[in-house]
Amino acid sequence: MAEAIAAVKSAYVQLSAGRVLAPLRTALDVSPADVTLVMPFYEAPVNGAGGALGLKLVSVFESNVPRGLPLIHSVVLAVDTASGAPLALIEGATLTAIRTGAASGAATDALARPDAAVAAIFGSGAQARRQLEAVCTVRPIERVYVYSLGGAEAFAAEMAGVGPIPADVRVAASPREAVGQADVICTATTARTPVFDDADLRPGVHINAIGVFTPDAREIPGATVRRARVVVDSVAAALAEAGDLLIPLSAGEITRDHFSTELGQVLAGERPGRAGAEQITLFKSVGVAAQDAAAARVILSNGPALGLGTVVEL
């Protein structure tokens, strides 16, 4: 995860500097609850090294959940930047969870208080697991609360004491219990309305909102958005998809300038991050293909050395 966070940090800096081509994704609405997203990416090599070219296809089918099927199915096709030839077909759901976790890890490292010790996780799926791992990679988390409409007990039992995660992982009985003592909050749900009350937040909390990515859905209360220092992965993507920001914007609670700072700009030192110990910070990510480019590059670098994957002769 530390390596993934470093790669995603670099990708965000490159994206904000205009050195990554990552067009807004195309959304194919299969049904009111199901969508397939097409996300191309290109990062040019530097001095003949690095770089990434490819495409991610990801399906988010909420109708799968009651059928006992995964919410997300995805593949990433990596392409040679020199010849355009296919290099690898990568299982994308795991990649997505890792790179999204790494994004929150990067944001937490840039925006959360250095002494943050308590984390709250909303959701209990694959995304929530990697969110927790990433936060615990960059901050000395001592206690974790998890709140979910289902699966919280299994999440707590599985994640406690794994890697950088503390042994003290507790199931919260309510959203208030989850956020009441939290220094870092991650929301990784499919909720369409806020998952906690603004009044329950502690001063100085940092929030990673990564679960919903449509203009009409949100996990974060408008009051929290209004008083937070908001940083986004991509301003263009946020304007197209971030309901957490677009809903309060349309209601007149905030202005367009309220979310004009990208994480890449903060990481590069071009824009300020946290202004004080009691300031609330909010990272809103809808997911951008620059993250997938970074993850694909790391996988292509590490996979063969680890003996992973199957070679297919073309």
From TrEMBL:
Q: Which one GO biological process term can you cite for this protein?
A: carboxylic acid metabolic process
What Pfam families has UniProt attached to this entry?
A: OCD_Mu_crystall
A GO MF annotation of the entry reads: oxidoreductase activity
Gene Ontology cellular component? cytoplasm
**UniProt similarity note:** Belongs to the ornithine cyclodeaminase/mu-crystallin family.
Protein's UniProt name: Ornithine cyclodeaminase
